[in-house]
Design goal:
Elements (H helix, E strand, L loop, with lengths): L1 E9 L4 H14 L3 E8 L7 E9 L11 E6 L2 H7 L3 E9 L14 E4 L2 H7 L6 H12 L5 H11 L8 H13 L2 E4 L2
Parallel strand pairs: 1-4, 4-5, 5-6
Antiparallel strand pairs: 1-3, 2-3, 6-7
Helix pairs in contact: 1-5, 3-4, 4-6
Length: 183
Amino acid sequence: MTEEIIIAGFGGQGVLSMGKILAYSGIMQDQEVSWMPSYGPEMRGGTANVTVIISDERVSSPILTEFDTAIILNQQSMDKFEKTVKPGGCLLYDPHGIIHEPTRKDINIYRIKGSKLATEMGNSKIFNMLVLGAYLKMKPIVELDNVIKGLKKSLPERYHNLIPLNESAITKGMENIEEIQKI
């Protein structure tokens, strides 16, 4: 099993940390992992993306032009990465700020209203965990126990009190993914 993922959105949406948590989760399952972030010079509001590869075999290169899954969190990323999903692959997106919905007919398309759910849960910082939960429901490549271990590894210890909130956000994301198109 090899899963090649691009997660893309604005800085401040938790794109890089979502990728890091996924990568740590893969490590906790004794899988081979690659995590390659890319972001602009802006602190917040600039574009950010991360490529994550989780595999049972050695990862030869972190540089990819096509992905099994794209997780898209803004329109600029939709415009740039929708076309990079392999035919038969999956695209997961949050509709907040998306003007042009995905149009491809040869991929599976899912939606999670993470921004809306984060507002309803009273904490915008759990947005990325809602999206991660939706992804893990769509493709359970890592076990939830290992995601929690990944959270503990990637969050500074002073934020470990937020792990239960993050865990409930992951569960809520799993419960609220919408299938838009299944091929």
